[in-house]
Amino acid sequence: MNSFGRYRRFAAAVVTLVVLVVLMGVTARERETVMLLERALVEAAAPIQAWFEGLAAGIRGGLSDIRAISQLRRENESLRAKAEAYDAALRRLRELEIENERLRALLGFSEAVPFDYVVADVIARNPDNWFSRVTIDRGSRHGIAKDMPVVTSQGLVGRVVGVSTNVSFVQLLTDRECGVGALVQSSRDAGIVKGQGSQSSLLRMMFFEREAEVGEGDALVTSGLGEIYPPGLYIGRVVEVTTEQHGLIKYAAVRPGVDFGSLEEVLVIVNYRAAGEEGEP
Amino acid sequence: MRGEAVFNLATSRHSVLGMSVLTALILETAVFPHLAVHGIRPDLVTVVVACWGLLYGPREGFLAGLGAGLVQDLLFTRYIGLFALAGALAGSLMGTVETKIFKESVWVSTAAVGVAVLGHEFVVWVLLRGLGVPAPALSLLTVALPGALYSTVFAPFVYHRLLLFRFREWAREREMTAGAGQVGQG
Predict the structure, then answer these.
(1) Which residues 199-218 of A are in CB contact (within 8 Å) with B?
(2) What does the alpha-carbon distance between residue B139 and residue B133 come to, in Å, rounded to a whole number?
Protein backbone atom coordinates (compact mmCIF):
# COMPACT_ATOMS: atom_id res chain seq x y z
CA MET A 1 0.00 0.00 0.00
CA ASN A 2 1.38 3.47 -0.82
CA SER A 3 2.08 5.96 1.95
CA PHE A 4 -0.83 8.20 0.92
CA GLY A 5 -3.33 5.36 1.33
CA ARG A 6 -1.80 4.45 4.68
CA TYR A 7 -1.95 8.09 5.83
CA ARG A 8 -5.61 8.31 4.75
CA ARG A 9 -6.55 5.22 6.74
CA PHE A 10 -4.71 6.45 9.79
CA ALA A 11 -6.45 9.83 9.53
CA ALA A 12 -9.85 8.08 9.20
CA ALA A 13 -9.13 6.03 12.33
CA VAL A 14 -8.14 9.13 14.30
CA VAL A 15 -11.26 11.00 13.13
CA THR A 16 -13.41 8.01 14.15
CA LEU A 17 -11.85 7.95 17.61
CA VAL A 18 -12.39 11.69 18.04
CA VAL A 19 -16.05 11.31 16.98
CA LEU A 20 -16.46 8.53 19.56
CA VAL A 21 -15.00 10.70 22.32
CA VAL A 22 -17.38 13.55 21.41
CA LEU A 23 -20.32 11.11 21.27
CA MET A 24 -19.39 9.80 24.71
CA GLY A 25 -19.28 13.31 26.12
CA VAL A 26 -22.67 14.15 24.63
CA THR A 27 -24.38 10.96 25.84
CA ALA A 28 -22.84 11.20 29.32
CA ARG A 29 -25.51 13.74 30.25
CA GLU A 30 -28.75 12.48 31.78
CA ARG A 31 -31.11 11.68 28.91
CA GLU A 32 -34.88 11.48 29.11
CA THR A 33 -35.23 9.02 26.23
CA VAL A 34 -32.99 6.72 24.26
CA MET A 35 -31.79 7.68 20.78
CA LEU A 36 -33.55 6.40 17.67
CA LEU A 37 -30.71 4.01 16.78
CA GLU A 38 -30.57 2.71 20.36
CA ARG A 39 -34.32 2.19 20.32
CA ALA A 40 -34.23 0.24 17.03
CA LEU A 41 -31.41 -2.04 18.22
CA VAL A 42 -32.85 -2.60 21.68
CA GLU A 43 -36.32 -3.41 20.36
CA ALA A 44 -34.92 -5.81 17.74
CA ALA A 45 -32.68 -7.58 20.26
CA ALA A 46 -35.28 -7.86 23.04
CA PRO A 47 -37.07 -11.05 21.84
CA ILE A 48 -33.75 -12.86 21.30
CA GLN A 49 -32.49 -11.77 24.72
CA ALA A 50 -35.74 -12.81 26.36
CA TRP A 51 -35.58 -16.24 24.74
CA PHE A 52 -32.01 -16.85 25.89
CA GLU A 53 -32.67 -15.50 29.38
CA GLY A 54 -35.69 -17.84 29.58
CA LEU A 55 -33.53 -20.76 28.46
CA ALA A 56 -30.81 -19.92 31.00
CA ALA A 57 -33.40 -19.51 33.76
CA GLY A 58 -34.98 -22.87 32.80
CA ILE A 59 -31.64 -24.69 32.99
CA ARG A 60 -30.79 -22.96 36.27
CA GLY A 61 -34.22 -23.78 37.70
CA GLY A 62 -33.99 -27.44 36.65
CA LEU A 63 -30.58 -27.88 38.27
CA SER A 64 -31.60 -26.21 41.51
CA ASP A 65 -34.84 -28.28 41.61
CA ILE A 66 -32.82 -31.49 41.56
CA ARG A 67 -30.53 -30.22 44.31
CA ALA A 68 -33.45 -29.00 46.41
CA ILE A 69 -35.65 -32.13 46.70
CA SER A 70 -34.21 -33.46 49.98
CA GLN A 71 -34.04 -29.96 51.45
CA LEU A 72 -37.66 -29.32 50.54
CA ARG A 73 -38.95 -32.14 52.75
CA ARG A 74 -37.25 -30.74 55.84
CA GLU A 75 -38.27 -27.20 54.99
CA ASN A 76 -41.87 -28.28 54.46
CA GLU A 77 -42.16 -29.51 58.03
CA SER A 78 -40.64 -26.41 59.58
CA LEU A 79 -42.74 -24.14 57.32
CA ARG A 80 -45.94 -25.85 58.46
CA ALA A 81 -45.07 -25.01 62.05
CA LYS A 82 -44.21 -21.44 61.08
CA ALA A 83 -47.41 -21.06 59.06
CA GLU A 84 -49.50 -21.88 62.12
CA ALA A 85 -47.63 -19.25 64.13
CA TYR A 86 -48.11 -16.72 61.32
CA ASP A 87 -51.82 -17.44 61.24
CA ALA A 88 -52.08 -16.41 64.85
CA ALA A 89 -49.95 -13.31 64.20
CA LEU A 90 -52.07 -12.44 61.16
CA ARG A 91 -55.26 -12.50 63.18
CA ARG A 92 -53.66 -10.18 65.71
CA LEU A 93 -52.39 -7.87 62.89
CA ARG A 94 -55.87 -7.69 61.42
CA GLU A 95 -57.14 -6.51 64.76
CA LEU A 96 -54.39 -3.86 64.89
CA GLU A 97 -55.15 -2.79 61.33
CA ILE A 98 -58.77 -2.18 62.19
CA GLU A 99 -57.71 -0.26 65.27
CA ASN A 100 -55.20 1.75 63.20
CA GLU A 101 -57.85 2.64 60.60
CA ARG A 102 -60.22 3.74 63.35
CA LEU A 103 -57.55 5.92 65.03
CA ARG A 104 -56.46 7.46 61.68
CA ALA A 105 -60.05 8.39 60.94
CA LEU A 106 -60.33 9.82 64.40
CA LEU A 107 -57.23 12.01 63.94
CA GLY A 108 -58.07 12.98 60.35
CA PHE A 109 -54.93 11.39 58.73
CA SER A 110 -55.22 10.80 55.01
CA GLU A 111 -54.80 7.25 53.73
CA ALA A 112 -51.35 6.53 52.29
CA VAL A 113 -51.55 6.25 48.52
CA PRO A 114 -50.92 2.61 47.54
CA PHE A 115 -48.38 2.04 44.82
CA ASP A 116 -49.29 0.82 41.36
CA TYR A 117 -46.85 -1.73 40.02
CA VAL A 118 -45.97 -2.99 36.58
CA VAL A 119 -44.52 -6.50 36.67
CA ALA A 120 -41.55 -7.01 34.34
CA ASP A 121 -39.20 -9.85 33.46
CA VAL A 122 -35.45 -9.35 33.37
CA ILE A 123 -34.42 -10.23 29.81
CA ALA A 124 -30.74 -9.27 29.82
CA ARG A 125 -27.90 -8.08 32.01
CA ASN A 126 -25.14 -5.74 30.89
CA PRO A 127 -22.22 -7.75 29.52
CA ASP A 128 -19.32 -5.82 31.10
CA ASN A 129 -17.86 -5.81 34.59
CA TRP A 130 -18.05 -2.04 35.11
CA PHE A 131 -21.77 -1.30 35.21
CA SER A 132 -24.69 -3.05 36.94
CA ARG A 133 -27.75 -2.72 34.77
CA VAL A 134 -30.48 -5.05 33.60
CA THR A 135 -32.90 -4.84 30.71
CA ILE A 136 -36.59 -5.48 31.44
CA ASP A 137 -39.35 -6.35 29.00
CA ARG A 138 -41.62 -3.38 29.74
CA GLY A 139 -41.29 0.11 28.28
CA SER A 140 -43.10 3.39 27.69
CA ARG A 141 -46.01 1.47 26.10
CA HIS A 142 -46.63 -0.10 29.52
CA GLY A 143 -46.43 3.17 31.45
CA ILE A 144 -42.74 3.01 32.42
CA ALA A 145 -40.84 6.30 32.61
CA LYS A 146 -37.33 7.36 33.55
CA ASP A 147 -36.44 7.42 37.28
CA MET A 148 -39.27 5.13 38.36
CA PRO A 149 -38.24 2.99 41.36
CA VAL A 150 -37.88 -0.75 40.87
CA VAL A 151 -38.42 -3.26 43.68
CA THR A 152 -38.99 -6.93 44.44
CA SER A 153 -40.55 -8.54 47.50
CA GLN A 154 -36.99 -8.63 48.92
CA GLY A 155 -36.53 -4.86 48.73
CA LEU A 156 -35.25 -2.07 46.53
CA VAL A 157 -33.65 -3.05 43.21
CA GLY A 158 -32.83 0.33 41.64
CA ARG A 159 -34.36 2.79 39.23
CA VAL A 160 -35.27 3.05 35.57
CA VAL A 161 -32.54 4.94 33.68
CA GLY A 162 -33.59 4.45 30.07
CA VAL A 163 -36.89 3.74 28.39
CA SER A 164 -37.73 2.45 24.94
CA THR A 165 -41.17 1.45 23.64
CA ASN A 166 -41.19 -2.15 24.89
CA VAL A 167 -37.95 -2.31 26.86
CA SER A 168 -36.37 -0.38 29.74
CA PHE A 169 -32.99 -0.28 31.46
CA VAL A 170 -32.71 -0.52 35.22
CA GLN A 171 -29.69 0.72 37.13
CA LEU A 172 -29.15 -1.66 40.06
CA LEU A 173 -28.21 -0.56 43.56
CA THR A 174 -24.81 -2.20 43.05
CA ASP A 175 -23.96 0.13 40.14
CA ARG A 176 -21.03 2.47 40.75
CA GLU A 177 -23.14 5.46 39.77
CA CYS A 178 -26.10 4.60 41.99
CA GLY A 179 -26.80 6.57 45.17
CA VAL A 180 -29.88 6.27 47.39
CA GLY A 181 -30.90 8.38 50.37
CA ALA A 182 -31.25 5.99 53.30
CA LEU A 183 -32.14 5.80 56.99
CA VAL A 184 -31.26 3.37 59.74
CA GLN A 185 -34.73 2.01 60.49
CA SER A 186 -34.29 1.96 64.27
CA SER A 187 -32.33 5.18 64.96
CA ARG A 188 -33.50 7.21 61.88
CA ASP A 189 -29.90 8.31 61.23
CA ALA A 190 -29.53 9.31 57.58
CA GLY A 191 -26.94 8.84 54.89
CA ILE A 192 -26.37 7.76 51.32
CA VAL A 193 -26.11 4.16 50.17
CA LYS A 194 -23.84 3.70 47.16
CA GLY A 195 -23.06 0.75 44.91
CA GLN A 196 -19.53 -0.56 44.55
CA GLY A 197 -19.79 -2.36 41.22
CA SER A 198 -21.00 -5.85 40.39
CA GLN A 199 -17.87 -7.53 41.79
CA SER A 200 -18.85 -6.50 45.33
CA SER A 201 -22.00 -8.00 46.79
CA LEU A 202 -22.07 -5.28 49.47
CA LEU A 203 -23.26 -1.69 49.30
CA ARG A 204 -21.66 1.14 51.22
CA MET A 205 -23.53 3.66 53.35
CA MET A 206 -21.95 6.98 54.19
CA PHE A 207 -23.58 8.66 57.18
CA PHE A 208 -24.23 12.39 57.38
CA GLU A 209 -23.51 12.38 61.13
CA ARG A 210 -20.35 10.98 62.65
CA GLU A 211 -22.31 10.07 65.78
CA ALA A 212 -24.90 8.08 63.86
CA GLU A 213 -26.29 5.22 65.91
CA VAL A 214 -25.83 2.15 63.82
CA GLY A 215 -24.80 -1.40 64.52
CA GLU A 216 -24.40 -4.75 62.85
CA GLY A 217 -27.74 -6.21 61.78
CA ASP A 218 -29.58 -2.86 61.61
CA ALA A 219 -32.07 -2.59 58.76
CA LEU A 220 -31.80 0.27 56.26
CA VAL A 221 -34.72 1.80 54.41
CA THR A 222 -35.04 4.56 51.83
CA SER A 223 -35.37 8.06 53.28
CA GLY A 224 -37.36 9.51 50.37
CA LEU A 225 -35.16 12.62 50.38
CA GLY A 226 -33.92 12.20 46.81
CA GLU A 227 -37.51 12.25 45.49
CA ILE A 228 -36.85 9.26 43.23
CA TYR A 229 -37.45 6.53 45.78
CA PRO A 230 -40.43 6.54 48.13
CA PRO A 231 -39.58 6.46 51.84
CA GLY A 232 -39.57 3.19 53.73
CA LEU A 233 -38.44 0.75 51.03
CA TYR A 234 -36.18 -1.92 52.48
CA ILE A 235 -32.58 -1.71 51.22
CA GLY A 236 -30.65 -4.22 53.30
CA ARG A 237 -28.87 -4.91 56.60
CA VAL A 238 -25.66 -3.52 58.02
CA VAL A 239 -22.89 -6.12 58.22
CA GLU A 240 -20.02 -3.90 59.37
CA VAL A 241 -19.52 -0.36 60.64
CA THR A 242 -16.25 1.48 60.06
CA THR A 243 -15.00 4.98 60.69
CA GLU A 244 -12.70 6.75 58.25
CA GLN A 245 -9.01 6.90 59.13
CA HIS A 246 -9.28 10.45 60.54
CA GLY A 247 -12.58 9.66 62.23
CA LEU A 248 -14.62 12.22 60.32
CA ILE A 249 -17.00 10.00 58.39
CA LYS A 250 -18.79 6.86 59.45
CA TYR A 251 -19.43 4.12 56.91
CA ALA A 252 -21.39 0.90 56.96
CA ALA A 253 -21.08 -2.12 54.72
CA VAL A 254 -24.59 -3.20 53.76
CA ARG A 255 -25.81 -6.55 52.48
CA PRO A 256 -28.71 -5.75 50.12
CA GLY A 257 -32.01 -7.50 50.67
CA VAL A 258 -32.25 -8.31 46.98
CA ASP A 259 -30.19 -11.12 45.50
CA PHE A 260 -29.11 -9.34 42.31
CA GLY A 261 -27.52 -12.49 40.88
CA SER A 262 -30.84 -14.31 40.61
CA LEU A 263 -33.05 -11.41 39.65
CA GLU A 264 -35.73 -12.68 37.25
CA GLU A 265 -38.86 -10.63 37.89
CA VAL A 266 -39.18 -7.07 39.18
CA LEU A 267 -41.93 -4.59 40.03
CA VAL A 268 -41.76 -1.04 38.71
CA ILE A 269 -43.57 1.52 40.87
CA VAL A 270 -45.33 3.64 38.27
CA ASN A 271 -47.27 6.12 40.37
CA TYR A 272 -44.89 7.28 43.09
CA ARG A 273 -44.05 10.70 41.72
CA ALA A 274 -47.53 11.22 40.34
CA ALA A 275 -48.93 10.43 43.78
CA GLY A 276 -46.40 12.77 45.38
CA GLU A 277 -47.24 15.59 42.99
CA GLU A 278 -50.96 15.23 43.70
CA GLY A 279 -50.24 15.64 47.36
CA GLU A 280 -48.18 18.80 46.88
CA PRO A 281 -49.91 22.10 47.56
CA MET B 1 -15.53 -13.90 -11.98
CA ARG B 2 -12.55 -13.48 -9.64
CA GLY B 3 -14.04 -10.26 -8.27
CA GLU B 4 -17.22 -12.15 -7.42
CA ALA B 5 -15.23 -14.85 -5.60
CA VAL B 6 -13.36 -12.19 -3.59
CA PHE B 7 -16.68 -10.53 -2.74
CA ASN B 8 -18.12 -13.88 -1.59
CA LEU B 9 -15.05 -14.47 0.54
CA ALA B 10 -15.39 -11.07 2.23
CA THR B 11 -19.14 -11.56 2.74
CA SER B 12 -18.69 -14.94 4.36
CA ARG B 13 -15.87 -13.51 6.53
CA HIS B 14 -18.05 -10.69 7.79
CA SER B 15 -20.97 -13.06 8.37
CA VAL B 16 -18.71 -15.19 10.57
CA LEU B 17 -17.59 -12.08 12.47
CA GLY B 18 -21.19 -10.90 12.89
CA MET B 19 -22.37 -14.30 14.12
CA SER B 20 -19.41 -14.60 16.50
CA VAL B 21 -20.04 -11.18 18.04
CA LEU B 22 -23.78 -11.85 18.29
CA THR B 23 -23.23 -15.23 19.95
CA ALA B 24 -20.71 -13.67 22.34
CA LEU B 25 -23.15 -10.88 23.26
CA ILE B 26 -26.01 -13.32 23.87
CA LEU B 27 -23.80 -15.52 26.06
CA GLU B 28 -22.53 -12.49 27.96
CA THR B 29 -25.96 -11.09 28.67
CA ALA B 30 -27.98 -14.26 29.32
CA VAL B 31 -25.58 -17.01 30.43
CA PHE B 32 -22.36 -15.54 31.83
CA PRO B 33 -24.04 -13.51 34.60
CA HIS B 34 -24.82 -16.93 36.13
CA LEU B 35 -21.20 -18.02 35.76
CA ALA B 36 -19.84 -14.92 37.49
CA VAL B 37 -17.05 -15.51 40.00
CA HIS B 38 -17.21 -12.83 42.72
CA GLY B 39 -19.25 -10.75 40.29
CA ILE B 40 -16.62 -11.00 37.54
CA ARG B 41 -17.71 -12.22 34.13
CA PRO B 42 -15.71 -13.03 31.01
CA ASP B 43 -15.66 -10.49 28.20
CA LEU B 44 -16.18 -12.75 25.21
CA VAL B 45 -16.85 -9.91 22.76
CA THR B 46 -13.38 -8.48 23.32
CA VAL B 47 -11.90 -11.97 23.00
CA VAL B 48 -13.57 -12.32 19.57
CA VAL B 49 -12.37 -8.85 18.52
CA ALA B 50 -8.80 -9.52 19.68
CA CYS B 51 -8.70 -12.90 17.89
CA TRP B 52 -10.08 -11.23 14.76
CA GLY B 53 -7.42 -8.53 14.85
CA LEU B 54 -4.73 -11.15 15.30
CA LEU B 55 -5.91 -13.11 12.27
CA TYR B 56 -6.84 -10.30 9.90
CA GLY B 57 -4.63 -7.33 10.76
CA PRO B 58 -5.09 -3.83 12.22
CA ARG B 59 -7.77 -2.52 9.83
CA GLU B 60 -10.09 -5.49 10.29
CA GLY B 61 -9.35 -5.53 14.03
CA PHE B 62 -10.18 -1.83 14.32
CA LEU B 63 -13.46 -2.18 12.43
CA ALA B 64 -14.45 -5.35 14.31
CA GLY B 65 -13.80 -3.66 17.67
CA LEU B 66 -15.59 -0.50 16.59
CA GLY B 67 -18.67 -2.37 15.35
CA ALA B 68 -18.94 -4.82 18.24
CA GLY B 69 -18.30 -2.08 20.81
CA LEU B 70 -20.88 0.21 19.23
CA VAL B 71 -23.54 -2.52 19.37
CA GLN B 72 -22.66 -3.11 23.04
CA ASP B 73 -22.85 0.64 23.74
CA LEU B 74 -26.19 1.05 22.01
CA LEU B 75 -27.71 -1.98 23.70
CA PHE B 76 -26.43 -1.65 27.24
CA THR B 77 -24.35 1.43 28.03
CA ARG B 78 -25.28 4.97 28.83
CA TYR B 79 -22.04 6.35 27.37
CA ILE B 80 -22.20 5.66 23.65
CA GLY B 81 -18.70 5.24 22.27
CA LEU B 82 -17.11 3.86 25.45
CA PHE B 83 -16.78 0.22 24.43
CA ALA B 84 -16.55 1.12 20.72
CA LEU B 85 -13.41 3.15 21.38
CA ALA B 86 -11.86 0.55 23.69
CA GLY B 87 -12.77 -2.26 21.27
CA ALA B 88 -11.34 -0.43 18.25
CA LEU B 89 -8.07 0.16 20.10
CA ALA B 90 -7.84 -3.46 21.31
CA GLY B 91 -8.63 -4.81 17.83
CA SER B 92 -6.11 -2.61 16.06
CA LEU B 93 -3.47 -3.29 18.75
CA MET B 94 -3.81 -7.01 18.06
CA GLY B 95 -3.71 -6.32 14.34
CA THR B 96 -0.36 -4.58 14.65
CA VAL B 97 1.21 -7.69 16.20
CA GLU B 98 -0.39 -9.93 13.56
CA THR B 99 2.85 -10.43 11.65
CA LYS B 100 5.09 -10.36 14.72
CA ILE B 101 3.90 -13.45 16.61
CA PHE B 102 3.55 -17.10 15.75
CA LYS B 103 -0.21 -16.95 15.33
CA GLU B 104 -0.60 -20.60 14.31
CA SER B 105 0.10 -21.44 17.96
CA VAL B 106 -3.12 -21.28 19.95
CA TRP B 107 -1.20 -20.75 23.21
CA VAL B 108 0.94 -17.86 22.02
CA SER B 109 -2.19 -16.27 20.59
CA THR B 110 -4.12 -16.88 23.81
CA ALA B 111 -1.47 -14.98 25.76
CA ALA B 112 -1.66 -12.13 23.23
CA VAL B 113 -5.46 -12.07 23.47
CA GLY B 114 -5.17 -11.92 27.28
CA VAL B 115 -2.96 -8.84 26.98
CA ALA B 116 -5.44 -7.26 24.55
CA VAL B 117 -8.39 -7.84 26.90
CA LEU B 118 -6.40 -6.32 29.76
CA GLY B 119 -5.56 -3.35 27.53
CA HIS B 120 -9.25 -3.03 26.66
CA GLU B 121 -10.21 -2.98 30.34
CA PHE B 122 -7.52 -0.40 31.05
CA VAL B 123 -8.84 1.89 28.30
CA VAL B 124 -12.39 1.50 29.66
CA TRP B 125 -11.11 2.38 33.14
CA VAL B 126 -9.32 5.50 31.85
CA LEU B 127 -12.43 6.60 29.95
CA LEU B 128 -14.67 6.00 32.97
CA ARG B 129 -12.36 8.17 35.08
CA GLY B 130 -12.56 10.83 32.39
CA LEU B 131 -16.34 10.64 32.43
CA GLY B 132 -16.41 11.04 36.20
CA VAL B 133 -17.65 7.52 36.98
CA PRO B 134 -16.30 6.35 40.36
CA ALA B 135 -13.62 3.85 39.32
CA PRO B 136 -10.74 3.93 41.80
CA ALA B 137 -7.26 2.71 40.84
CA LEU B 138 -7.93 -0.39 42.93
CA SER B 139 -10.60 -1.46 40.43
CA LEU B 140 -7.78 -2.21 37.98
CA LEU B 141 -6.85 -5.04 40.35
CA THR B 142 -10.37 -6.01 41.42
CA VAL B 143 -12.17 -5.68 38.07
CA ALA B 144 -9.84 -5.29 35.09
CA LEU B 145 -7.24 -7.95 35.93
CA PRO B 146 -9.58 -10.76 37.07
CA GLY B 147 -11.92 -9.93 34.17
CA ALA B 148 -9.05 -10.26 31.68
CA LEU B 149 -7.87 -13.52 33.25
CA TYR B 150 -11.36 -15.02 33.22
CA SER B 151 -11.86 -13.94 29.59
CA THR B 152 -8.54 -15.48 28.59
CA VAL B 153 -9.85 -18.89 29.67
CA PHE B 154 -12.23 -18.74 26.70
CA ALA B 155 -9.63 -17.44 24.24
CA PRO B 156 -8.22 -20.84 23.06
CA PHE B 157 -11.69 -22.09 22.05
CA VAL B 158 -12.63 -18.88 20.23
CA TYR B 159 -9.23 -18.55 18.59
CA HIS B 160 -9.17 -22.17 17.49
CA ARG B 161 -12.57 -21.87 15.78
CA LEU B 162 -11.61 -18.63 14.03
CA LEU B 163 -8.17 -19.98 13.05
CA LEU B 164 -9.82 -22.97 11.34
CA PHE B 165 -12.02 -20.57 9.41
CA ARG B 166 -8.97 -18.48 8.50
CA PHE B 167 -7.13 -21.62 7.27
CA ARG B 168 -10.06 -22.41 4.98
CA GLU B 169 -9.96 -18.84 3.70
CA TRP B 170 -6.22 -19.06 3.01
CA ALA B 171 -6.80 -22.28 1.08
CA ARG B 172 -9.56 -20.65 -0.98
CA GLU B 173 -7.44 -17.54 -1.59
CA ARG B 174 -4.61 -19.77 -2.81
CA GLU B 175 -6.97 -21.68 -5.10
CA MET B 176 -8.21 -18.41 -6.53
CA THR B 177 -4.66 -17.12 -7.07
CA ALA B 178 -3.66 -20.37 -8.75
CA GLY B 179 -6.82 -20.25 -10.90
CA ALA B 180 -6.13 -16.67 -11.93
CA GLY B 181 -2.50 -17.66 -12.81
CA GLN B 182 -3.72 -20.47 -15.06
CA VAL B 183 -6.22 -18.18 -16.80
CA GLY B 184 -3.43 -15.65 -17.30
CA GLN B 185 -1.14 -18.33 -18.79
CA GLY B 186 -3.93 -19.66 -21.05
Answers:
(1) 199-201
(2) 12
